[in-house]
Amino acid sequence: MVRPEEVRRSSRKALEENYKFRTYLKIHADTKDLDRRFLRLHKELFAGYDCRNCCKEYRADFTNKEIEKAAKLLSISGLSLLDSADVCPVVFEMFERLKGEYGFRRHR
């Protein structure tokens, strides 16, 4: 799992890929299956992690439409807006593991 002090750098490095993965999930994932996988990973990863509750300070979920609207108001791209949001090490690891479970192809 990525160290807490490395989350910002790691999440920015994977920003565009994560954006594409979120879109991929919206199109291909069954929501109930995704919820089950997410819960399993949540329990597995948080069981061995001393949570600092940092995600409660700045974690929010936005729809693509909301991101586009906010980005337009701020005169920046949607990806730039997402770039301003950090995630906790556990959430970052969950996302990386879900990419593997769903067979998401990384394009670098």
Gap from first CA to last CA: 21 Å
Order of helices and strands: HHHHHHH
Structural class: mainly alpha
Approximate shape: globular
- Estimate the strand proportion: under 5%
Number of strands: 0
Task: Describe, in plain words, how this protein is organized in 3D.
Residues 81-85 have low confidence and may be disordered. The longest helix has 17 residues, at 31-47. The protein has 7 helices and no strands. The chain is an all-alpha fold and 108 residues long.
Brief summary:
This protein is an all-alpha fold and 108 residues long. The protein has helices at residues 7-13, 15-28, 31-47, 55-58, 64-74, 78-83, 89-101.
Main attributes of the structure:
7 helices; 108 residues; mainly alpha
Q: How do the helices and strands line up, and which of them pair or pack?
A:
Elements: H1 7-13, H2 15-28, H3 31-47, H4 55-58, H5 64-74, H6 78-83, H7 89-101
